[in-house]
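Q: Sequence in, structure out?
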Amino acid sequence: MKTTGTSSSGNHRKSGFSLVEVVVAVGIVATVFVAFLGLIPLGLENMSDAGNITTQSRIAQKIIGEIQLSEWRDENQGGTDAKNSIIDSFDGDTRYYDEFGDETNDESERVYLAEIEVLQTGQGDVTLPGAEPNKYIKNAVIRVAYAPPGMQKIKFRTYTTMMADLKKRNAETK
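A: Exactly. Output:
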């Protein structure tokens, strides 16, 4: 950049950037701008993925809460066997959810899909080394996916929980 100075005759010279300096500065700014533009799609994709994962986790937590709050067996129906528990009624359920994570019965409105599997005695028994399988503990596997209608490739996220029949176990240990 040229500086302002005073000549011996008292006239002031004008200062400013040369054409080369302006071109270099514009080139640097353009390069940085293009780099930032390249990050925008990646940032938007990450934000979308984070929203989907949050909604899927919320759906899984709703289902897990519902299963854990269920009675182990229906005493009114004579259900005393751990094999035929109310929790088993969740096994094989497929549920549909909208974009907010609210359950919907209309498959055409679905954005998320949840599949529930309750592992029966012998399949998902919790065992400790040297211990027998525990028939009073069951595993539930919840698979949730972002799956709007027409989507060909569905990727499930898996969540698991365990439930224990403490009433029956406590009654047997007394």
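The mean pLDDT is 81.
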